[in-house]
Amino acid sequence: MISEAELIVDRRRLKRKLTLWRILAVLLAVAAVAALVWEAGGRKRADHLARISIDGLITGDQKTLDLLKEVSEANQVKGVILRIDSPGGTTAGSEAVYEAVRKVSAKKPVVAVMDTVAASGGYITALAADRIVARGNTITGSIGVIFTFPEVSKLLDTVWIKMEELKSGDLKAQPSPYAPVTEKARDVSMQMVMDGYDWFTGLVAERRQLPLPRVKELSDGRVYTGRQAIAVKLIDEIGGEEAAVAWLGSAKNVPAGLPVEDWAPRSSSSTTGLGLTASFLLRALGLEGLEAAAQRAKLDGLLVLWHPAH
Q1: Distance between CA atoms of 115 and 269, rounded to whole angstroms?
Q2: CA 106, CA 269: separation in Å to the nearest integer?
Q3: How many CA atoms lie within 13 A of 283 on its CB side?
Q4: Would you name the residues annotated as active-site residues?
Q5: Per the confidence metrics, is the pTM higher than 0.85?
Q6: What are the distances in angstroms from CA 167 to CA 121, 160, 259?
Q7: Between 307 and 143, where is the model more confident?
Q8: pLDDT in tens, 170-200
Q9: pLDDT per residue over 16-65, tens digit each?
């Protein structure tokens, strides 16, 4: 039988364990509250310039749109620097970001600073700014729209598979990956592409104050270096963030000496867990190209996207 002394020792040991877990629970609760306070109140800063990074594929995700709205409403933000490093993305997503940046510009000056690549949808984002600055070797331009789709009918023939379709009209689900594209479907798809192209070139003509015929000459899909882009008036200045800050002071009377602070989308569950772990592992193994390819594979609809493969 267990003696009374042993019972007392067991109770004390259990009490110590419970005390330890209670302390850990309190610490976790304090950390959670601190995180919430930082998330809610961390935006309350002194007057400054906000730096917003537009990286990777542009899809018009809600977090980016919410961030731009928050910056536009922040009284302590006296100017905005958009750091763009993007080959573009979806046409609709680029349109959404463009409109969001224009709303920011209605309240405070915005300068786009192009980094390595700001092409196609990345250039659309830059067009929304009040001034565009790029490095001499920045890749920009690629003014145009693309619509891609697979066509695997020959592969299906090889493996003796025939796809049957019952549809309400001959243009439903066209172009189809299961059969060669018809001329009618090709014409309708091309009309959609050209409508997006007209929208894009219209933006360039409006924002860069260039005659539309001249914009059409520049908009055959080619890319330009920063030096080439300034020669054809697609950008305003060769330089980096220092040039952007200097312009904000000279042209927009933004007080000199304001610090530049990074603004980022608020964290969400989509940036944690397995998705973040998989992304980290791919980058650690030097396979970030696979991650980018997987992201591109998810894109659907009309694209304003530059990549050597396109």
Answers
A1: 29
A2: 32
A3: 7
A4: 120, 172
A5: no
A6: 34, 23, 60
A7: 143
A8: 777 677 777 788 888 888 889 999 999 999 9
A9: 666 665 676 666 655 554 454 444 445 557 999 999 999 999 999 999 99
d(CA 90, CA 302): 6
Reduce the secondary structure of the chain to three states and give it as a string: CCCHHHHHHHHHHHHHHHHHHHHHHHHHHHHHHHHHHHHHHCCCCCCEEEEEEEEEEECCCHHHHHHHHHHHHCCCEEEEEEEEEEEEEEHHHHHHHHHHHHHHHCCCCEEEEEEEEEECHHHHHHHCCCEEEECCCCEEECCCCECCCCCCHHHHHHCCCCCCCCCCCCCCCCCCCCCCCCHHHHHHHHHHHHHHHHHHHHHHHHHHCCCHHHHHHHCCCCEEEHHHHHHCCCCCEECCHHHHHHHHHHHHCCCCCCCEEEECCCCCHHHCHHHHHHHHHHHHCCCHHHHHHHHHHHCCCCEEECCCCC
Of 224, 194, 219, 191, nearest in space to 204 by CA: 219
In angstroms, how far is the first alpha carbon of the chain from the final one?
81
Both tokens of residue 26? 């309190």
Polymer length of the chain: 310
Q: Give buried/exposed letters for 196-213 (b at 16+ CB in 10 A, else e).
A: bbeebbebbbebbebeee
Decide: 83 and 52 in contact? Cβ < 8 Å.
Answer: yes
Six token digits for residue 66? 């919410």
